[in-house]
Design a protein that fits this description.
Elements (H helix, E strand, L loop, with lengths): L5 H9 L6 E5 L2 E4 H17 L7 E5 L4 H13 L2 E4 L6 H9 L5 E5 H7 L10 E5 L7 H10 L11 E3 H6 L17 E7 L7 E6 H12 L9 E4 L6 H12 L3 E4 L8 H8 L3 E4 L1 H5 L17 E4 L6 H13 L7 E5 L6 E4 L9 E5 L4 E5 L13 E6 L6 E2 L3 H7 E3 L5 E11 L5 E6 L4 E4 L5 E4 L1 H8 L5 E11 L3 E10 L8 H13 L10 E5 L12 H6 L6
Parallel strand pairs: 1-11, 3-4, 3-5, 4-8, 5-6, 6-7, 10-11, 10-12, 12-13, 13-14, 26-27
Antiparallel strand pairs: 1-2, 8-9, 9-19, 14-15, 15-16, 16-22, 17-18, 18-21, 20-21, 21-22, 23-24, 25-26
Helix pairs in contact: 1-3, 2-3, 8-9
Length: about 550
């Protein structure tokens, strides 16, 4: 199951079906034969620019076909795809580009626009810029270019377009099979981990193929089923779903800029069978006034992950799906970037209210005492840990952080400590009851989803001498899913400073320290923080407070 590369797995399952549909992209349909051809051309061009085994190449793009060509071409050569947020701030993007020995990076036009005035700080040898319109028919590509003149790229010794890149490999001989080990690196994705500080998560071929195999088992998948992609591929939850779908010969609906209000239209038009999404996108159904009766009749398996959804909301979403002709319910799950993606999921035969399901076939789960680390019995609450083929290789050049989250037992088994708290019942169903870490999911105006770790924002604000305490929570917003809200207690040293002045000071401080999407949208001054019965700041109580603009 795990003795080949991502590229080899893709070829094995698809080489006999060149005329099958590989993906729907905007107005265009792309077949598997064309995908093979583009991967070949991309591989030749990567070779021409000097990419070899174990090289790291950065990709900052939305869900476009070029991401698929790149990831498979890099994997074919034994190189590593470093996936980053395509619309992070210029400073954060530069940090991503410069923290690794990249000689080559691929960015979409939106990322390039952010970097345009900072190219002198980029350490890569070549920056390849890809337009979202690249895979459109020539006429539509020209129309897009006319409407988006600000995205025009000036090529020079550092910068080239995708078209120029793909010409580099003319005449280059395609490689024979590159010998690789199962645990060779395939992808690096970025996460805040348990501390909120960005870390590169290294996933091997074995990790990702093991993840793909487990995700499709028991789902009743068939060749040429349709998988809809809503999330950008810098998130493992999305990237692995994309690779899984192509590896199993699905039709993949790639959407570079997702509009939640069009969900019923997308499903009905393309006869979508599977969707892996997040609660906020499912909850967007509440705001769609008219849904045709058979809009959801093609769906066969739909999942919600990334964060929890309460039972009442889950039932309300299911009611809408059923009213639209769906004959199924949402499947819940649990996972993290460090476990490649999901490790637990619900099935029709393994689902009870409040449960996130059962561990996948090759995954083991145990609950341990948070203080002692000793394994607990059924129905005893503790930290949730997993072992199996999908547990990451480790954090990039960060062995200390890796050792903090992955513990090896006396039998030599590596256990991932998730930071989530829960219990397992006698039927093997897992229940999530809390988080040792806190997470805010945010969607910006371009449809890109980001994970915000409150601890990172709090650590920045707490550097201010006038702030004694700080807690950051999420506020639901119709256009951005969640916004970070900061609650602060002012230090006695700043007594007499006006509340409005304090709030403005916090915002200005964060603007100099954090990427734009992490800057609190509101700051509120409290006399004291609410506390739990154990004396800790009760962030759940703050989440329940009514939010008002400062």
């Amino acid at each position: 199951m795990f003795t080949c590369t991502l590229y080899e797995y893709f070829v094995e399952n698809n080489h006999s079906y060149p005329d099958d549909i590989a993906c729907h992209y905007l107005s265009r349909t792309i077949r598997y034969g064309e995908v093979f051809r583009q991967i070949d051309l991309c591989t030749q061009s990567l070779l021409a620019l000097g990419v070899r085994r174990n090289d790291i190449v950065t990709i900052a793009m939305p869900s476009v076909p070029e991401v698929v060509y790149l990831v498979y071409a890099l994997n074919r050569l034994g190189a590593v795809a470093n996936m980053i947020h395509p619309l992070a701030s210029a400073e954060e993007t530069l940090n991503y580009l410069n923290e690794m020995p990249n000689r080559l990076a691929f960015v979409f036009t939106g990322t390039y626009a952010l970097l345009r005035d900072h190219l002198d700080k980029v350490s890569v040898e070549k920056l390849v810029v890809v337009s979202p319109a690249q895979s459109l028919q020539p006429v539509l590509r020209s129309i897009y270019a006319l409407k988006n003149r600000k995205e025009r790229v000036s090529e020079n010794s550092l910068v080239m377009t995708w078209g120029t890149f793909m010409k580099q490999g003319r005449g280059v001989t395609l490689p024979q099979r590159v010998e690789r080990a199962d645990d060779d690196w395939a992808v690096i994705s970025h996460t805040g981990g348990t501390t909120g500080r960005p870390k590169g998560v290294v996933n091997s071929n074995m990790n990702i193929i093991g993840q793909m195999w487990q995700m499709v088992e028991g789902r009743g998948c068939r060749r040429q089923d349709c998988m809809m992609i809503q999330l950008p591929p810098f998130i493992n939850y999305s990237l692995v779903t994309i690779l899984e779908s192509f590896c199993y010969g699905f039709r993949v609906l790639l959407i570079p800029k997702y509009d939640p209000s069009k969900l019923p239209e997308y499903i009905y038009r393309y006869k979508v069978n599977f969707i892996h999404s997040i609660p906020a996108y499912w909850e967007a159904l509440f705001h769609i006034s008219k849904i045709r009766k058979n809009a959801f009749s093609s769906l066969r398996a739909i999942a919600s992950g990334g964060e929890s959804m309460d039972v009442e909301t889950e039932k309300a979403v299911n009611d809408i799906l059923h009213a639209g002709g769906g004959r199924l319910n949402l499947m819940m799950g649990l996972g993290m970037t460090e476990s490649t993606s999901g490790v637990v999921g619900t099935y029709p035969w393994a689902k009870v209210p409040g449960s996130v399901g059962i561990p996948f076939l090759k995954t083991n789960c145990r609950i341990v005492d948070v203080t002692t680390g000793e394994e607990l019995s059924y129905n005893e609450e503790g930290e949730i840990c997993f072992s199996g083929p999908t547990i990451m290789v480790g954090y990039y050049k960060n062995p200390e952080a890796t050792a903090d989250i992955i513990k090896t037992d006396a039998d030599g088994t590596r256990w991932l400590h998730t930071g989530d708290v829960g219990y397992m019942n006698e039927d093997g169903l897992l229940f999530l009851t809390g988080r040792l870490k806190r997470l805010i999911m945010q969607k910006d105006e371009n449809g890109m989803v980001s994970k915000i770790f409150p601890e990172r924002i709090e650590s920045v604000i707490m550097q201010m001498p006038e702030i004694e305490e700080c807690c950051v929570v999420g506020k639901t917003d119709a256009t951005r899913i969640n916004l970070p809200i900061a609650y602060v207690v002012v230090s006695p040293k700043a007594a007499g400073v006006g509340e409005a002045e304090v709030c403005q000071s916090v915002i200005r401080w964060c603007q100099g320290q954090l990427p734009a999407y992490m800057i609190p949208s509101e700051v509120h001054v409290l006399s004291t923080m609410p506390r739990t019965d154990r004396g800790k700041i009760d962030y759940r109580a703050l989440e329940r407070k009514p939010k008002m603009k400062s």
